[in-house]
């Protein structure tokens, strides 16, 4: 299995994030990708290639023009105002406030275009996210050219980013960009299976009223887990998208057997959909020792996940999402890919 490695990820290096009212060391660090790269290199799974430039257009198929303009210039604006270090939002247009007018104030626009204060916007956020999306488009090309699978090693992750906002460590929704590009290249039905511990609210929202992308996710119950405000089982799609969204929330601490039962259920739905391409939002924060998540998968479970996904039988594009037990991420990711490859 070929991999694309977004080596530009290093320029997105947050020092701290807000957690329980304090600044704590960031969880989403460059070291995460370093460990995966090391494990990939040691695995001999296949060639590891750099990303190539497909331009802004495929990103603009998913994200709003005003949001992208904001994101590209945000850090420079923050610095021009005297901001030091990373930028954080502090005010949001919640229910009852206007979100249809873009204020001039930078602080106001930070809130307009974000969903939480837990996502540091750094000097390199845009470049890292831009090249992450490019890497995903390269991975897509590999699969569209007929290979059975490809893996994209990138950060920051993407699945919380909506059409018009960043959050949950995410800025550009890589899975959505890849799915839309697949459709634009002529495919009719794309499935996204999100196995990250957290619900991919951005991906769901982007395709919620559409039948050409089926979004399915297994995740910590939003009643207690981030992103809290989306990811319930009764969210089944809207308009033409009714029946093309499937959520499998599980309580924190759920037994692994329940997780695999959800995987079977999700894949049964996707089998009926008969997608021409399966995109896997591959977060490995379902790992038992993940510091911010609450499932209990172990290395052999990750290998089994890969085997089950291989048995599904669709061309498969794996995109890296979360996973914060830094030193274990590489091993867990490679376990999934090896399970898939050897099945
Ligand atoms: C991104 B992905 C922990 C607070 C949690 C948001 C978590 C985003 C996870 N200090 N903040 O889905 O892995
Ligand atoms: Zn996650």
UniProtKB/TrEMBL annotation:
Stretches that traverse the bilayer: none
InterPro entries to which the protein is assigned, alphabetical: HDACs, His_deacetylse_dom, His_deacetylse_dom_sf, Ureohydrolase_dom_sf
Residues in the signal sequence: none
Domain Histone deacetylase positions: 28-338
Cofactor(s) listed: Zn(2+)
Keywords, comma-separated and alphabetical: Hydrolase, Metal-binding, Zinc
PANTHER family: HISTONE DEACETYLASE 8, HISTONE DEACETYLASE HDAC1-RELATED
Membership in a protein family: Belongs to the histone deacetylase family.
Protein name: Acetoin utilization deacetylase AcuC-like enzyme
């Amino acid at each position: 299995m070929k991999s694309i490695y977004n080596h530009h990820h290093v320029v997105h290096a947050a020092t701290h994030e807000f957690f329980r009212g304090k600044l704590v060391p960031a969880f989403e660090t460059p070291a995460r990708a370093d460990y995966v790269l090391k494990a990939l290199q040691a695995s001999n799974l296949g060639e590891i290639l750099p990303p190539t430039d497909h331009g802004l257009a495929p990103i603009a198929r998913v994200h709003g023009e005003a949001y992208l303009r904001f994101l590209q210039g945000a850090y420079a604006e923050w610095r021009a105002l005297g901001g030091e270090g990373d930028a954080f939002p502090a005010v949001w247009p919640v229910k009852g406030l206007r979100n249809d007018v873009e204020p001039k104030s930078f602080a106001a626009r930070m809130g307009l275009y974000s969903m939480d204060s837990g996502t540091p916007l750094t000097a390199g956020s845009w470049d890292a996210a831009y090249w992450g999306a490019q890497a995903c488009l390269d991975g897509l090309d590999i699969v569209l050219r007929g290979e059975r699978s490809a893996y994209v090693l990138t950060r920051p992750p993407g699945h919380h980013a909506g059409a018009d906002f960043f959050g949950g460590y995410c800025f550009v929704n890589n899975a959505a960009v890849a799915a839309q590009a697949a459709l634009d290249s002529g495919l009719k039905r794309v499935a996204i299976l999100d196995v990250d511990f957290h619900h991919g609210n951005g991906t769901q929202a982007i395709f919620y009223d559409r039948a050409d992308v089926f979004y399915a996710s297994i995740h910590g119950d939003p009643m207690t887990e981030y992103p809290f405000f989306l990811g319930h089982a009764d969210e089944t799609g809207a308009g033409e998208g009714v029946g093309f969204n499937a959520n499998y929330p599980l309580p924190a601490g759920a037994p692994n057997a329940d997780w695999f039962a959800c995987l079977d259920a999700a894949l049964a739905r996707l089998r009926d959909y008969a997608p021409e391409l399966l995109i896997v939002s591959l977060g490995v924060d379902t790992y038992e020792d993940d510091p911010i998540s609450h499932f209990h998968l172990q290395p052999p479970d990750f290998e089994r996940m890969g085997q089950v996904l291989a048995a599904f039988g669709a061309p498969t594009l794996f995109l890296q999402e979360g996973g914060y037990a830094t030193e274990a991420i590489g091993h867990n990711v490679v376990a999934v890919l090896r399970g898939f490859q050897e099945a």
